[in-house]
Amino acid sequence: MEHGSFQDPSQATFSVTDEDHTLANSLRFILNQDPRVTFCGYSIPHPADARVNIRVQTTGDVAGEVLKDSCQDLMLVCQHVRSTFDQAVMEFKNKEGLKSMNIRQ
C-alpha cells in the first residue's frame, strides 16, 4: 500500500505486510545505492504487527517506480548469491570435498 502525495510523487511511504527486517533492511540497502534516491528508511510500527513502512524520497523520479526498480535489483542480487552458492557446493562435492570427508557416493 502506498501512502504518498498526489502533489509530489517523488516522496512516498509504502506499507508492506507480512514482512520484517530481513526484506526491509535489504531493500533499504539497495535503494540507498540508487543515485535517484535522496532518502530511504524503514520502520516497523509494532513488533507484534507483521508490517514494514518504507519511506522513499527521490531527486524527482516517481518514488513507486524507484521502489519497483530496487525490488527487481534485489531479486537479481539474490539470484546471483543463490547461483554462486549452488556452484560452490557443486564444485566442493565434485572435487576434494567428499574425499576429505571420507564419504562414498
Automatic annotation (TrEMBL):
Subcellular location(s) per record: Nucleus
Which CDD domains does the protein's record reference?
Answer: RNAP_I_III_AC19 (cd07029)
Q: Which SUPFAM superfamilies match?
A: RBP11-like subunits of RNA polymerase (SSF55257)
Matching entries from Pfam families are given as: RNA_pol_L_2
Q: Known Gene3D superfamilies for this protein?
A: RNA polymerase, RBP11-like subunit (3.30.1360.10)
Q: Name one GO molecular function term.
A: DNA-directed RNA polymerase activity
Location (main, coarse): nucleus
Domain called DNA-directed RNA polymerase RBP11-like dimerisation: residue spans: 12-83
Q: Which GO terms describe its cellular component?
A: RNA polymerase I complex; RNA polymerase III complex
What superkingdom heads the lineage? Eukaryota
Sorted alphabetically, the Gene Ontology BP terms of this entry are: transcription by RNA polymerase III; transcription elongation by RNA polymerase I
Q: Which UniProt keywords apply?
A: DNA-directed RNA polymerase, Nucleus, Transcription
What protein family does this chain belong to? Belongs to the archaeal Rpo11/eukaryotic RPB11/RPC19 RNA polymerase subunit family.
- PANTHER family reported in the protein's UniProt record: DNA-DIRECTED RNA POLYMERASE I,II,III, DNA-DIRECTED RNA POLYMERASES I AND III SUBUNIT RPAC2
Q: Spell out the protein name for this chain.
A: DNA-directed RNA polymerases I and III subunit RPAC2
